[in-house]
Structure to design on (187 residues):
């Protein structure tokens, strides 16, 4: 800082968002040490976020978490003889939205889609953000007809959703596909 190292000045800087303060004149060893500590902390925070089972933008499962949960549920459904359906959903106009509105606005749009997908599900269902504009739903004990009903409800909700950005109203276009494994009589 260029200010005196008074407690009042330090408190004001922290209130404004500073995370660390080094007074002048500073010593290079102190600066290197604090910078190194900040870099290590940032790496730990990033690693922890990557290991989280929940995507921070959407609140849905991460790809790794979804894969693990799906493997367990597939094994259980096969053993118990239950149907299971997985749906894949893509926001079709993602590239256009990104180009026109930028990353910040598109992240809010993706978060809104994630909230919609995660909000109208049974406890046993799992919704995931697979990255960017790609989502997936795992629907245990759901046959293709039941999954089609879920997809129709999602379509209706997205069709009703009108996101106002500036003076424009944005509509979200999506495509989806489902794959279902029916229960068998095999043991």
């Amino acid at each position: 800082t260029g200010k005196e190292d008074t407690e009042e000045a330090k408190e004001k800087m922290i209130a404004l968002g500073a995370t660390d303060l080094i007074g002048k004149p500073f010593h290079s060893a102190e600066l290197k040490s604090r910078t190194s500590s900040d870099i290590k902390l940032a790496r730990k925070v990033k690693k922890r976020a990557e290991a989280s089972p929940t995507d921070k933008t959407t609140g849905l499962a991460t790809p790794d978490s979804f894969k693990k949960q799906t493997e367990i549920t597939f094994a259980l459904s096969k053993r118990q003889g239950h149907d299971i359906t997985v749906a894949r959903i893509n926001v079709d106009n993602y590239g256009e939205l990104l180009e026109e509105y930028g990353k910040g606005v598109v992240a809010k749009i993706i978060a809104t889609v994630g909230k919609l997908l995660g909000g109208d599900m049974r406890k046993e269902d799992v919704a995931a953000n697979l990255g960017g504009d790609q989502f997936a739903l795992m629907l245990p004990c759901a046959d293709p007809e039941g999954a089609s009903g879920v997809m129709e409800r999602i379509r209706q909700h997205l069709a009703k959703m009108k996101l106002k950005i500036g003076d424009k109203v944005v509509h979200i276009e999506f495509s989806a596909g489902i794959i279902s494994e029916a229960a068998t009589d095999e043991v």
